[in-house]
Design a protein that fits this description.
Elements lengths: L10 E4 L2 E4 H15 L3 H9 L3 H10 L8 E5 L5 H10 L4 E6 L2 H13 L6 E5 L12 E7 L8 H11 E12 L8 H20 L2 H13 L3 H10 L3 E8 L4 E7 L2
Parallel strand pairs: 3-4, 3-6, 4-5, 6-7
Antiparallel strand pairs: 1-2, 7-9, 8-9
Helix pairs in contact: 2-7, 3-4, 7-8
Length: 254
Amino acid sequence: MSEQSPYEQGTTHFGFRDVDAREKQKLVAEVFTSVAGKYDLMNDLMSLGIHRAWKRYFVGTAQVKRGDRVLDLAGGTGDIAALLKPRVGSEGSIVLGDINNGMLSVGRDRMIDRGLVEGFEYVQCNAEALPFPDNSFNLVTIAFGLRNVTDKNAALREMQRVLKPGGQARVLEFSEVKLDWFKPIYDFHSFKVLPKLGKLFANDSDSYQYLAESIRKHPPQEQLKAMMGEAGFARATYKNLSAGIVAIHTGYKV
């Protein structure tokens, strides 16, 4: 008999710690409630500012057109939604979904400050059980959020379910670095520098330690591609950016 996986035993990972699967959602919520007001700073510290270029490329190469309806999961601060808005135009609409109310509130305020009001909807929701009918969206995106989901397979199945036939799903996430010479430098930044910066700028080293650990526990490129296929996506592919620091995974609903 094969050994049960940690998730089947009722445990999962929270960074490098094994925790009760039912507790992970609460623990992740505490992290993002803590960093919500400093989210842009968090991404700048984690990516040395390059996350802005990654997001522009992510949106710029998405399959989306005027009039489309888009769901942006883990979309709390609105970065992806703001970039998508010119592409869907006034005829289109964007739903920002996030499990964390603090993140969603920060995102709503920032979007209003940018003058982006019409065509947006904000929904507090769990990616593992989306409150939308089948075949609702032309595009579903999730940027830097999938690694924090407890049951990633369930979230991928839900993304596939709510897509319209012919629709596209896109995942932007930290992934596995491919350059051997760069790995020790990246590890040093992640585990030695980042928590200290978190303590210095946000008075919160623990959350930043977790975020660095969560990247290492996230499925690498080929594994996530296979998971998307198992969730029902056709033509699952990925593209590495910055030597695999992040990857964009894409799949379609047929």
